């Protein structure tokens, strides 16, 4: 299947670096020893046919002071990806920031832009491949969890809208700084997609449910310049739509989750088609997955929905299992068993989960058939891209 990435099925390494409610600094890459075992982790994914991954730089470790960078936490991972022959979409900020930065200040935007440009320079000097980045991961989620409910840094309430705008400003500045270093750079803007509905017995909740559902588009709209134009967004800044989708992304307003089988559940392929109609950009499932024995079944569901979206003319670029490897729970540090790579209790020994690897192989065959069908519709899709995307 020809596309933007080396493989349609991808793996994402959990790289959260936020400060949680008790102010403890999370560093999942360090806890899982992915920073020292990256070469082994990448090779395991290659063995399963996964040649594209999401991974992260840890800004809070790299920037030692304003404009002072120590790349020692990142370079071994970059070198490991190159030696393993794995393509990486690099997260520049996965919720963690240097301790001396006020996230609401102009300095935050300036510092992030300088750091993003410096990171792009490090990568450009060591690789001729077209680079892919996610500048700021999940702006909408971070704005809510850090600006409205105090769970992540900056631990505020009532500041979600302000934080969202600030993160968009930083993302735009960072992307422009990267482009100044390497004009070939491509960007994945990863956001959760949600669907919130009002119970039929609670019609008064309809406006609130609709407003909350619509909020999922705000960060993308701002980046594209459709909203809050003063932030500097524009058509060319919205590149690849990244979709984060899990079993709990849909719910009844004030009530239960609208999971599979619930009459309020909206099929994923419909949500993907709506995104394509709204933005006209290629779409990548940047996060999806389920724990333990549910992993293969969930991947089968998501794959079937993606195939249907492709048959509907939606240009889908891939599905990223996320997390692709066991990781410690953010709040309780329990061992979460998920993804293609299983790790022992000491976070040392790694093995491939054969059932999930076999499921990927099965799903790839069906995906190739859907891709062939999509190619027959390519003239229609390309017309849409030409209409809505800037010339590159």
Automatic annotation (TrEMBL):
Highest rank taxon of the organism: Bacteria
Classification via InterPro entries: GH
Name under which the protein is recorded: Beta-glucosidase
């Amino acid at each position: 299947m020809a596309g933007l990435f080396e493989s349609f099925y991808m793996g994402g390494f959990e790289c959260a670096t936020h400060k949680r409610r008790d102010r403890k600094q999370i560093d999942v890459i360090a806890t899982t020893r992915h920073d020292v075992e990256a070469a082994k982790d990448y090779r395991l994914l290659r063995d399963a046919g996964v040649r594209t991954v999401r991974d992260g730089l840890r800004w809070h470790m790299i920037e030692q002071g304003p404009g002072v960078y120590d790349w020692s936490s990142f370079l071994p991972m970059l070198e490991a990806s190159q030696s393993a022959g794995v393509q990486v979409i690099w997260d520049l900020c996965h919720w963690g920031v240097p301790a001396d930065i006020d996230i609401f200040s102009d300095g935050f935007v300036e510092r992030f832009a300088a750091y993003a440009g410096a990171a792009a320079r490090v990568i450009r000097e060591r690789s001729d491949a077209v680079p892919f980045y996610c500048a700021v991961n999940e702006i909408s989620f971070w704005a809510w969890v850090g600006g409205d409910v105090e769970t992540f840094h900056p631990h505020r309430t009532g500041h979600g809208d302000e934080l969202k705008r600030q993160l968009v400003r930083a993302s735009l500045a960072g992307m422009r700084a990267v482009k100044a270093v390497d004009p070939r750079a491509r960007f994945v803007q990863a956001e959760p997609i949600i669907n919130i509905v009002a119970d039929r017995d609670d019609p008064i909740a309809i406006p609130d449910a609709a407003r909350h559902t619509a909020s999922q588009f705000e960060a993308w709209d701002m980046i594209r310049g459709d909203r809050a134009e003063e932030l500097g967004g524009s058509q060319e800044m919205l590149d690849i739509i990244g979709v984060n989708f899990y079993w709990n992304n849909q719910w009844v307003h004030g009530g239960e989750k609208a999971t599979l089988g619930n009459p309020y559940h909206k099929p994923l392929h419909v949500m993907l088609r709506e995104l394509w109609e709204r933005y006209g950009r290629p779409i990548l499932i940047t996060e999806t997955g389920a724990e333990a024995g549910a992993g293969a079944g969930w991947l089968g569901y998501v794959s079937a929905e993606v195939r249907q979206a492709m048959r509907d003319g939606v240009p889908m670029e891939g599905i990223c299992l996320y997390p692709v490897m066991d990781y410690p729970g953010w709040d309780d540090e329990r061992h979460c068993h998920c993804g293609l790579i299983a790790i022992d209790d000491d976070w040392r020994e790694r093995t491939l989960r054969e059932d999930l690897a076999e499921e990927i192989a099965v799903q790839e065959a069906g995906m190739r058939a859907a891709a062939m069908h999509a190619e027959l519709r390519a003239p229609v899709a390309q017309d849409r891209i030409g209409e809505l995307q800037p010339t590159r």
